[in-house]
Write a structure and sequence with these properties.
The complex is a heterodimer.
Chain A (H helix, E strand, L loop, with lengths): L2 H18 L7 H29 L6 E6 L4 E5 L3 H24 L12 H14 L7 H18 L6 H35 L9 H14 L1 H19 L5 H11 L2 H25 L11 H23 L5 H27 L6 H37 L10 H4 L1 H15 L5 H16 L6 H27 L5 H13 L16 H19 L1 H13 L6 H6 L3 E3 L5 E3 L5 E2 L1 H19 L6 E3 L23 H4 L7 H10 L4
Antiparallel strand pairs in A: 1-2, 3-4, 4-5
Helix pairs in contact in A: 1-2, 1-4, 2-3, 2-4, 3-10, 3-13, 3-19, 3-20, 4-5, 5-6, 5-10, 6-7, 6-8, 6-9, 7-8, 8-10, 9-10, 9-12, 10-12, 10-13, 11-12, 11-17, 12-13, 12-16, 12-17, 13-15, 13-16, 13-19, 13-20, 15-17, 15-19, 16-17, 16-19, 19-20
Chain B lengths: L2 H37 L9 H11 L2 E3 L4 H21 L14 H22 L2 H32 L4 H4 L12 H17 L11 H4 L9 H26 L8 H25 L5 H23 L3
Helix pairs in contact in B: 1-3, 1-9, 1-10, 2-9, 3-4, 3-9, 4-5, 5-7, 5-11, 7-9, 7-11, 9-10
The chains are: A mainly alpha, B mainly alpha.
């Protein structure tokens, strides 16, 4: 059994599942559990492929499964370390999302599941295929369309809603543009390659294109640059890069059902990152380095990444709809990944002392952020989905005090918010730390990286602000009239328990809680033991031998310490969460002891507002009121109006 | 030195730092009050008054106004714990206690954690005033945290290392002892320091006369003591970082000299902070946000210069 066969089996299982689930679609629950089982088996196969690649190393050559040589049409798959990272991510997110779907789909009274589960499974199959095919043309097209069209149908799942239909159409058009751009780029490289080079093999295979690439780069630099530019545009559209991401992503993610949003944001947009790394780094052989303007491409990607993370996150700050807010953060977080990838490429081009190590560090940061963002963003979308089924609204202004009503969901939302905001001891911090360390250490070789890193720190603060709002106003603050009403309704449906005790009454069912907790444990695990996460991507890199990836694999990025902490290869930066957690834990115990010394009594009371605190819902401080001064900061020309509007709408 | 020997020594230094901050923070506050009183031609409270205040608060009734008291209790523990952990990462006349296991990036985020605890406190208290304070506090953090980060990054670019001991030893001036970027950052720090330690004229998020202490408006008893202490300790820890980054002179002497010199510099810094706080009126939040933005822009320019080694 090879890893490639396992992936084909995973794809086949998912496609077979897509054919079976419509038969059971009369009962939403049965269809849901069937789809979950199919996803589980498929993920099991995919993860064993990943394990096989990481432990035994990848197979030497791609495996051919279905050939039509006359057309240059050949299903060849190859799972190397880079593919393994993305296969693992897909498998890891698809299972919780499928389990969450089972009860979530009951939320749609007017829509069946016959046009849900089959598409989810096809979508899943396509992602496994897309990150392991070696064909730049035919099978790239097939898997891309297999991902795009079910994705489109899932985004417009509520097809009677005009907004969903419009969001779906936008997604479809943008994805087709991306597909065409990427395929034109591939055609250009392949044709030019077959003219100037004479490497045998299929015209559109990675191996052939890669073998011909040094000659293409040397003889037709303008054509090669155009092709790579088209790749950047194509994959950039997919991953939500500035300026393309702002067109489709913020509409598409909120329109889809929440588990699909989790897949879209956690996994699908990452296939763009995969494409970027595969085409820009893995496709280019080491011999082509002198003719390949790697430093320029790295600078472009890093700078676009910085713009993406700042604009995406800044726009997220203005959002008051939960899933739309999360969607803008997807753009922002992709910016971090792009910054890491760009820094990696820029540093790879330099051969100064320490540049290669910093490049590897940047690569590790970028790919670990791919995994981390997949996990915590999927968790956040599942949280938003649980909140949506419990309260029936995405509007943060109507929410408040939900901690009391859904404490188990609240705890996972807190973990996810801490992770995305980069709080130490949670997963997001680990990858951000790696990217910052790479940017600072790489600055002597690419002097814009430190500034990009500083802007990333600024963005991290904006992210924190946004999640203070997201988590604070929905789970903390005070119970809103809307939430109280929903809680009473829910309690009335269940005769057990006293009607006055509403605590926990909106809690999500077990099948929705288990996926959330699974993902939350992953967030904390990577946060406390960064060596585990970084070792995974380091190992994946070590078993990737193609192109410039081999150079990255030879340089040492991080050293793992016995306490599960990490240090950069140069030893100039270190992060050992166990020590920080230990110190903070001890100090907290000390502080707790001191705070109990006075033996003061505790009393619960309502907050002070001249006695009007519980009088009206408008006496609460809602999401709209947050950060008025910052929201108006960059609309310099319109500042007076913005300020006046802020005053009229309440305190800021 | 063996790993365990090193660990033991660092733990010892950490204990010294924590103890010093616990003892010095209320004293610094007392000094601040005394100097302010003298400027206003008042007698002022005795210098040990903040200790007495804190002790008195420990015995007072603890009213929990929010719907999630768990979060309020956590926030009250986290606030001093985060500041003291930051104290364990700052060299205060000795080496940085957690130096071998952390770096400046971690320091920036641990300091953010102090802010986060205040935000959680305000959010879970549920009062309109505290949420208004949270919004303001967060807006200040958005600019001030990156400003601190830029200073530390500039320092680490100059010395080519992110280690706390390397960076927090006057690194912004570069190896040559003078750099334009360091000078610009010094000016930025002089202007931003009041805001970082939330003193007048930039105490917009607490603003007693306006928001009634903002995020901690609803707190009383031991919880208020914890938040008050965290705020006092913040002045000392931030002061330590500022002294380490910008006023390294005299710290490379022998231990018996370096340690007292560090604390003398810190006291001098606190007196400067007090003089500014006592003689300026609070700015409005929109003015403050715009000033922070301008300072951040200047700091980024300095970072570009630092990247070029200038």
């Amino acid at each position: 059994m090879t890893a490639e066969r396992l992936i084909v089996a995973a794809i086949a299982v998912a496609v077979a599942g897509a054919l079976i689930t419509p038969l059971a679609s009369r009962c939403k629950t049965t269809a849901g559990w069937i789809a979950f089982l199919v996803t589980l088996v498929s993920a099991g196969l995919a993860l064993s492929a990943v394990a096989m690649v990481l432990i035994e190393g990848p197979s030497e050559h791609p495996k051919a499964f279905w050939a039509m040589p006359r057309l240059g049409f050949d299903l060849r798959l190859h799972v190397d370390g880079l593919s393994a990272i993305f296969v693992a991510l897909t498998a890891l997110i698809s299972v919780p999302a499928a389990m969450h779907s089972v009860r979530y789909m009951h939320h749609y009274a007017d829509y069946g599941v016959a046009h849900y589960y089959p598409f989810v499974l096809l979508f899943l199959a396509a992602m496994y295929g897309l990150v392991s095919t070696t064909d730049m043309m035919w099978f790239f097209f097939i898997f891309w369309q297999l991902m795009t069209i079910p994705g489109y149908l899932l985004i417009r799942y509520e097809y009677r809603s005009k907004a969903s239909a419009r969001a779906g159409m936008r997604y479809l058009v943008m994805m087709q543009i991306a597909c065409v751009a990427t395929m034109i780029g591939a055609e250009m490289l392949a044709v030019a390659g077959s003219r100037v080079g004479d490497a045998p093999g299929l015209k559109y295979d990675f191996a052939t294109v890669s073998a011909n690439l040094p000659l293409v780069l040397a003889q037709k630099p303008a054509l090669a640059a155009t092709a790579f530019g088209l790749f950047l545009v194509g994959f950039g559209i997919k991953m939500g890069m500035w300026p393309f991401g702002h067109v489709w992503l913020p509409d598409a993610h909120p329109a889809a059902p929440s588990p699909v949003s989790a897949m879209l944001s956690g996994v699908m947009i990452k296939t763009g990152v995969y494409g970027l790394l595969r085409y820009f780094v893995w496709l280019v052989p080491e011999g082509a380095l002198p003719d390949y303007p790697m430093a320029t491409w790295g600078a472009i990607v890093a700078l676009i990444g910085t713009v993406t993370l700042l604009t995406g996150t800044y726009q997220a700050l203005r959002q008051e709809q939960s899933k739309r807010l999360l969607a803008f953060h997807s753009i922002g977080q992709v910016g971090y990944i792009l910054l890491g990838a760009g820094a990696c490429m820029a540093l790879l081009a330099s051969d100064g002392p320490g540049a290669r190590e910093a490049a590897t560090l940047a690569f590790l940061g970028a790919t670990l952020h791919v995994l981390n963002h997949g996990v915590f963003k999927a968790l956040l979308f599942l949280n938003a989905g649980s909140m949506l089924t419990a309260t029936g609204t995405q509007d943060l202004n109507r929410l408040g005090g939900m901690w009391t009503y859904m404490p188990l969901t609240a705890l996972t939302a807190l973990v996810a918010s801490c992770s995305i905001a980069g709080v130490p001891l949670f997963s997001g911090f680990v990858s951000k730390w790696t990217i910052y360390a790479a940017a600072i250490q790489g600055n002597p070789h690419a002097p814009y990286l430190a500034v990009c890193g500083a802007i990333a720190v600024l963005t991290s603060a904006l992210t924190l602000a946004s999640f203070v709002k997201f988590f604070g106003v929905s789970f903390l603050s005070r119970t809103s009239a809307w939430v109280a009403q929903r809680a009473r309704e829910r309690r009335a449906q269940r005769p057990t328990g006293s009607s006055s005790d509403l605590a926990g009454s909106l809690e999500a069912p077990v099948s929705m809680l288990v996926p959330q907790w699974f993902l939350a444990v992953l967030c904390v695990g990577v946060g406390v033991a960064p060596a585990a996460g970084l070792s995974f991507v380091t190992r994946a890199l070590a078993v990737s031998h193609d192109g410039l990836g081999a150079i990255l694999g030879r340089a040492l990025g991080v050293q793992a310490s016995a306490t599960l902490g990490v240090a950069t290869a140069s030893g100039q930066a270190a992060f050992v969460p166990a020590v920080i957690a230990g110190a903070m834990g001890l100090i907290m115990a000390l502080v707790w002891g001191v705070s109990r010394m006075g033996a003061s009594r505790r009393r619960a009371d309502s907050p002070w507002l001249c006695g009007y605190a519980d009088e009206a819902d408008s006496n609460r401080y809602s999401a709209h009121g947050f950060y008025g001064e910052v929201k108006g900061l960059f609309t310099a020309g319109r500042r007076p109006e913005a300020a006046r509007k802020g005053d009229a709408d309440g305190p800021t | 030195m063996s790993d365990w020997g090193l660990a033991l020594r660092q733990v010892g230094i950490a204990a010294v730092n924590v103890l010093c901050v616990i003892l010095a923070a209320p004293l610094a506050e007392g000094l601040l009050r005394k100097v302010t009183a003298r400027i206003q031609s008042r007698q002022g409270p005795p210098i040990i008054q903040p200790y007495l205040d804190l002790m008195k608060l420990l015995g007072k009734e603890d009213v929990e106004s929010g719907e999630t008291p768990v979060m309020q209790r956590l926030a009250a523990l986290l606030a001093p714990a985060a500041v003291l952990t930051a104290a364990c990462m700052t060299p205060m006349g000795l080496r940085a206690p957690l130096g071998p296991w952390t770096d400046v990036v971690v320091l920036v985020y641990v300091i953010t954690l102090c802010g986060i605890s205040t935000l959680l406190a305000g959010l879970s208290a549920g009062s309109t005033y505290s949420l208004l304070g949270v919004s303001r506090e967060m807006m200040a953090m958005m600019a001030l945290e990156p400003i601190l980060a830029v200073m530390l990054i500039a320092g680490s670019l100059q010395v080519g290392s992110l280690r706390l001991d390397d960076v927090l030893s006057g690194s912004v001036y570069g190896s040559g002892g003078f750099a334009w970027s360091g000078l610009i950052l010094l000016c930025v720090m002089a202007l931003a320091f009041q805001a970082m330690v939330q003193r007048m004229p930039y105490d917009t998020s607490e603003a007693e006369t306006e928001l009634m202490e903002g995020p901690i408006a609803e707190y009383s008893g031991p919880k208020l003591a914890m938040f008050k202490f965290a705020q006092m300790a913040k002045l000392v820890v931030y002061g330590g970082i500022a002294v380490g980054l910008f006023v390294p002179w005299g710290s490379d002497g022998p231990l018996w000299l370096a340690w007292p010199v560090f604390w003398l510099k810190l006291v001098a810094l606190i007196i400067v902070v007090t003089l500014i706080a006592a003689t300026h009126a609070r700015v409005r939040i929109d003015q403050a946000v715009r000033r922070y933005g301008a300072l951040l822009a200047v700091a980024l320019v300095a970072l570009v210069l630092a990247g070029m080694g200038k």
